[in-house]
User: Which sequence fits this backbone?
């Protein structure tokens, strides 16, 4: 079962509670499925994101895509997301 898209401040977004390598395989796959729905920062689909083309697919195709990735590929996608999110958050002015 898939959980709803996490908010910006959940472990899917900034301040991740778990490094990808500490997640179970199912946990890492579920996390990547969530990231394949939309960018957690703005719920968009940035053109420079490695998941941009995947987000254009329907849900069944996204699930099949994630299902066929190996763990290193999944971890690399999650790490890429975390780096991108950290960079974007550094650019947001603090109040």
Assistant:
């Amino acid at each position: 079962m898939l959980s709803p898209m996490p908010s910006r401040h959940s472990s899917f977004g900034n301040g991740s509670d778990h490094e990808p390598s500490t997640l179970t395989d199912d946990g890492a796959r579920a996390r990547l499925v969530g990231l394949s729905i939309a960018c957690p920062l703005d719920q968009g689909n940035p053109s420079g994101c490695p998941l941009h083309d995947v987000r254009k697919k329907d849900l069944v195709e996204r699930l099949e895509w994630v299902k066929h990735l190996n763990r290193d590929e999944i971890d690399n996608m999650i790490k890429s997301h975390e780096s991108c999110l950290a960079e974007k958050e550094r650019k947001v002015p603090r109040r």
The chain has four helices and no strands.
